[in-house]
Design brief:
The chain has about 325 residues and is mainly α. It has 15 helices and no strands. α1 runs antiparallel to α10.
């Protein structure tokens, strides 16, 4: 019992650590804002692979990784899901870096706030899952929030929506692939690494590589991009194994909240009444989404839903 409690507490620490690191990640990308986002992305991919191989070797899991990777090659469904995941997460990473370095941290925050709602919608469309009454309410409120922002500013928050959709689709691919976190991340980045390396080599041949021309600080920051990518994912994997999915779901709002604070207080991005009202719709939707399965909310469901359930039963 005591051991279970320790594991649970460790899981909470891992999960919080992962989301805090994701929340402050914009600070890291801001240090590299003078470098094109596609070059930062290429280094992020390459050094993430290097770091993951080191981790696998240190933990003595390289052999099991090879065996699991071979198994994936013999299962087309898993292989296609992993390939799609690697492409989609690359798009997500690129847009995240680009958005931060183009003063859109608040929009990044918005994207990760609405991501859980998009995940639910994907579950309905692809996996044929059914929405509960309160989930439907949450989806409507999130949609109203995004629509309000679109009307107020005269443009769709495309970066936020692309980040939310890409990460939700990535999660769906991971669910279908059903591969361990460490193996999945290593294979995903490994698949896209040849393209990243070709691009980086082409830069070095034309003396356009920031890695070799911008000094040691930039060199170490680009190498560190791989570490900054892998550590939160490893912490998240450790947390997810030890605590419930509902608790993980509660902690996931730590990241975008930190990003929002950073965007407003550190990067001085505009946060107007229009932003606030849009975010209030989304925050309300997320609260309902998070607590919709509690007894209190179930009691507040319209009576005709309960009649329908009892009739079906």
């Amino acid at each position: 019992m005591e051991q279970q409690l320790k594991e649970h507490q460790l899981g909470i620490l891992f999960a919080i650590g992962a989301y805090v690191l994701w929340g402050i990640l914009p600070l890291y990308w801001k240090l590299l804002d003078a470098i094109p986002a596609h070059e930062v992305l290429a280094h992020r991919i390459v050094w993430c692979v290097v770091f993951m191989f080191i981790i696998l070797l240190v933990l003595g899991k390289f052999k099991s990784f090879i065996e699991e990777a071979r198994g994936i090659l013999t299962h087309p469904k898993q292989l296609i899901s992993i390939i799609l995941a690697s492409i989609i997460i690359s798009i997500n990473w690129y847009l995240f870096i680009w958005s931060v370095n183009n003063d859109r941290v608040i929009e990044v925050s918005l994207g990760y706030y609405i991501n859980p709602i998009v995940t639910v919608i994907l579950g309905v469309l692809v996996l044929k899952e059914k929405l509960s009454f309160w989930q439907m309410v949450a989806v409507v409120l999130a949609f109203v929030g995004v629509l309000h922002m679109t009307i107020q500013f005269g443009s769709i928050p495309w970066a936020a929506l692309t980040l939310a959709i890409s990460f939700a689709v990535y999660g769906l691919c991971k669910k279908i692939a059903n591969v361990g976190a460490m193996t999945g991340l290593t294979i995903e980045t490994l698949l896209i690494t040849p393209f990243a390396l070709i691009f980086l080599l082409s830069l070095s041949r034309t003396d356009a590589s920031s890695f070799t021309t911008d000094g040691l600080t930039v060199m170490f920051l680009l190498i560190g991009a791989g570490v900054a990518t892998a550590i939160p994912l490893l912490l998240f994997a450790g947390g997810a194994r030890r605590i419930s999915l509902s608790l993980i779901g509660f902690f996931q709002y730590i990241g975008p909240t930190i990003m929002l604070i950073i965007g407003i207080l550190l990067f001085n991005e505009p946060f107007t009444l229009a932003h606030l009202s849009s975010f209030l719709f989304i925050w309300t939707g997320l609260l309902i989404f998070s607590f919709g399965k509690t007894k209190l909310f179930i009691k507040l469901e319209p009576k005709f839903l309960h009649k329908k359930k009892s009739f079906q039963g």
